[in-house]
Design brief:
- This protein is α+β, with helices and mostly antiparallel strands and 76 residues long.
- It has one domain.
- It has two helices and three strands.
- The chain has a three-stranded antiparallel sheet with strand order 1-2-3, with helices on one face.
- A hairpin with a 6-residue loop joins β2 and β3.
- It is elongated and about 45 Å long.
């Protein structure tokens, strides 16, 4: 028996599917913020619109990018 397409065996989501779900979750929490995972860098990125213009932020984990988005929005 083979796994279903797009799964990592036993019906588990692939790493790409998990990252996509994390992106959707973060963008749902922060409307207007663009979030993505950089395949080449291995980092999480966000473009946060602020009063003085957009700010690009980078973090190693989804939790840290979330925290940095919150901090950036609170400052400006």
């Amino acid at each position: 028996m083979t796994g279903q397409p797009g799964t990592a065996g036993h019906g588990e989501p692939t790493p790409a599917e998990l990252r996509a779900a994390t992106v959707r979750s973060l963008q749902g929490q922060f409307p207007g913020v663009r979030v993505w995972y950089g395949e080449a860098t291995g980092s999480w990125w966000a473009m946060v619109p602020l009063r003085d213009g957009p700010r690009l932020i980078e973090a190693p984990t989804p939790q840290e990018i979330r925290d940095l988005i919150l901090r950036a929005r609170s400052l400006g």
